[in-house]
Amino acid sequence: MGKLRKHQEKLRLMMLVSTTVSLVLAGVGCHRSATPNQLAAESTDAKAASDRLAEAETLYQGREDLNKARAAVAALRQAQTADYANYEVAWKLSRAAFYVAEHTESDSERDDMYRQGVEAGKAAVQLQPDKADGHFWLGANYGGTAAHSTLANLSSFNDIKNEMDAVLKIDEPYEGYSAYLGLGRLYLQAPRVLGGDSKKAIEYLEKGVKLSPNNTTMKLDLAQAYHVNNRNDEAKKQVAAIMSTKPDPKYAPEHKEAVAKAQDLLKKLG
After folding, report:
1. For the segment 52-108, what is each residue's pLDDT rounded down to a tens digit?
2. What single string gives the DSSP state of each residue in 17-71?
3. pTM for this predicted structure
4. By the 8 A CB rule, do 125 and 137 touch?
């Protein structure tokens, strides 16, 4: 009787082990059969990303209040967490981060925003290499970073130039032909030893202004480039043109800044 009981217990133990092993192997099999795309899809919340994206767009429209621009960055980061493969989220995060970096008075916040802008821009380019948005805002953030480190190395110069050249190739009129603005700034700000050339900067900016006469930010940079080259009469003409240009409501904050900076430049021009 005792032997029979022991035999039955042994059988139950063997069945339990067998069942456990089968469940483990089944779980491993399911995991192995799931592709990376399927796993990514399972972790994607498209609805949450869409909601945060819409919220961020409204906040960005009020970017003249820098706290709204910061809130836009935060909302876009949440959207990216919800759906990393969303191209629109990536490039708009790069754009919003750039705006905060350009306007903050905090060095640490500026550096962090440029870093986030670069990372988001790279993600956008990886997701949609044949669209201009990612290239432009990646290049803009590269440029902002470089401007605060005096374009310390040749790779920075090439990175910015490559992204802006990509925009011109893919969609030349993007953001009011602002790739010419990016290239103009690059050649104006870079040390000569790294390829800086104020005359070449003027060529890019003149072409951009000709193609996009309402782009007052580009006119301001052209006026500054003229001033650097002692062409002050031409600089004054650009300042006057800025003052008389009717702004596109979409870019009202940028136009307002251009007017204020043009007035400051006019004082230097006498």
Report:
1. 999 999 999 999 999 999 999 999 999 999 999 999 999 999 999 999 999 999 999
2. HHHHHHHHHHHHHHHHHS-HHHHHHHT--HHHHHHHHHHHHHHHHTTTSHHHHHH
3. 0.82
4. no
